[in-house]
Amino acid sequence: MKRKISILLSVIMVLSVLFYVNAFAGVDSGLENAVKLVKSKIDIPADYKVFNFSNGTERNKKVWSMDWSTKEGGSAISVTVDEKGNIIRYNNMKPTLGQRTQKLPKLSKQDAKAKADAFIKKVSSEYFSQVRYLENMNRSLMDITYSFNYTRIVNGILFPANYINASVNSDTGEVLSYSAVWSEDAVFPSTEKLISKEEAQKAYIEKLGLDLYYNLIMEDGKKRIYPVYSPKRPLYYIDAITGEKVEVLFDNSPYYGGYEMSFSSIGGLNEKGAMDQVSLTPEEAQAIESVSKIISKEETEKKLRSIKALGITDEYKLLDATIGKDYSDNEGLIWRLNFVKDAKDKLYKDSVNVSIDANTGEIRDFWMNFSNRDNEKAKYDKETAKAAVEKFIKEIEPDKFKEIELDERSNQDEKIALLAGIQSEFRFNYVRKVNGAIFLSNYMSLRFDAVTGKIVSYNMNWDKVEFPSLDKVIPIDKVYSKLFNDVGLQLQYKQSYPQEYLMKFPELGNDKQEIKLVYTLNYEKPSTFDANTGEMLGEDGKPYKGPNKYEYKDIKGHYAEKYIKILAEYGIAFDESEFKPDSKIVQKDFIKILSSIMNFGYGINMLSTKDSKQIDEMYKVMIREGIVKESEKAPDSQVTREDSVKFIIRMLKYDKVADIKGIYNCNYKDKNKINKNLIGYVVIADGLNIIKGSNGYFNPQRSLTRADAFILAYNYLQN
Questions:
Q1: Nearest to 563 by CA among 419, 443, 718
Q2: Whole-model pTM above 0.85?
Q3: Helix, strand or coil for residue 444?
Q4: Residue ranges of the SLH domain (predicted)?
Q5: What phi, psi does 387 have (nearest 5°)?
Q6: Which residues are CB-contacts of 201 (< 8 A; sequence separation ≥ 6)?
Q7: Which domain holds residue 614?
Q8: Pair (313, 450) in one structural domain
Q9: Of 127, 151, 181, which residue sits at a domain end?
Q10: Residue 318 within a domain
Q11: CA distance to 245, 361, 416, 498, 618, per residue, from 248 (Å)
Q12: For residue range 181-230, what is the model confidence (pLDDT) as tens digits?
């Protein structure tokens, strides 16, 4: 029975992916036309002589999938064409495509996008005329390709279900992949009878709305809890014609199964002698102390067998018991026990796996596996299941039960199973509620088997944290005002299928889809607000500043403008409205540039050089990596040209070579002014074109400007 549900869900989740229903017999003229079409638009190299094809249907349309490859293998081009002559997929596979190092690409983003645009226009000009390019600000120095995303626009309104994606090699300019998802025959509702935006806002407040939550983030290795206002029904929209709420089914994440860790006594050393001479680190001593306080394996097993709902009878044998670190609590340990029921007449053994807090005895999670029961029918309804689930929670966590409430948000798996009439289990998710605010990070998730009447899985996440008071929370009306002014509702077309149609798989295609016109929150901005101040917050829990699109007011026409803009594409930038290119750069700002390069541009610009704790952490990393020495740390001092070279050469790991004395020929006229210990550094940097002098002078003691620091970083990334 579960297998049937799995098949049905799989089909529904891949509506926009190639789905073969019945292979077409024989080869007709369609293949010839498809081959000619592809070769008229795409260059197939002459040495790609191996040809293969397959045919089937996708979204109720006949498609041809073809690939050309070299006889040696490795290089190949694959293309998929539909019956209307649209190229819907393209992949250019190259065996030499390797991983990028810390180096800037040969092709700029603008030039790469021009390549992608030209390719899309050639293979599907009709599609290209109906899409809008969506700017992607996230890029790393490790990326070997540029990725470009385009969304379909209908009547001036976004239709996210239809899109084009393309990727371009950032060194060669080759288009490596292209895919288009398109609803050819979709009928789009007219915009003539729209409710006004004001009516939509009122409907949003009444039928969807915001709620009060506690959020959790990690800061400096510690958990920080803060109150926010966020949408309470993020998977619903407002129908732009009727003003009613519209539901979108969604997919649940698969249940997580942890790995086993062994833990046993160690033999082979004498009780005295060698072991007495061994010293322990504070971390080792803490781990040993924590182990000494844990509940024994025997006590743990006895406790689990006493819980009737788990059903661990004497028929179940303890297969293994392991212990390991609790990653949700750095000081805790978790027992993991695996019980198996011997069943010689069954293909699969029934088993129960349990994780339990080794200090408190709390059950963190469990799951049960049963032998195949496809022919058995459900015997229990949802109300019975809910009662059993809540009885179980009260039995094992009576105090926590008082702090939870059922999360009523849509469960896609359950809804589809009910429609298809093959319901075999019910899922329940309870979220923690503290001081009247929902804390989504803490929950209890359970699955109830409607055939056996057993709870077959349970997962609890519960933090030991202090919750801030809600005494200073502002009224929700003020937040709605900011939501609609700062984020706003926008029109979008959404794709859906009639509920009765979901049962009629596998005949899923464009002809049965419904397109709804809805009002939804602007997807380009966050819709989470500080409950005390009303400020819009980003994912880091800090006031939202917008995407990392660095546009400085004071660099136009400057000799370093080109370099500043290129590095900004990779997150190597100053988070300020003015760059101040000719100002002297201080050490902490220069080290931040180097940190950005080390981190390939990822996340480092969340670091504030005005926050002393963050600056200290940055220096710890750079000192550990050998780029800065402890004695050199001077965050607010100006960086000289020779010092900047010293840090750069250490980044390249050439410092040991640079430290060799007497082998370097320095041609700068002012070489006598260069620190004698840095001659090798300057010569190497000059040879690598990282830094150049002026009129034969290096000017080693001159302070580096912010603009020159970026040119230096740019030159470094050319090596």
A1: 718
A2: no
A3: strand
A4: 547-662, 665-719
A5: -60, -40
A6: 480, 484, 489
A7: 561-716
A8: yes
A9: 181
A10: yes
A11: 10, 40, 12, 11, 44
A12: 998 888 999 999 999 999 999 999 999 999 999 999 987 778 899 999 99
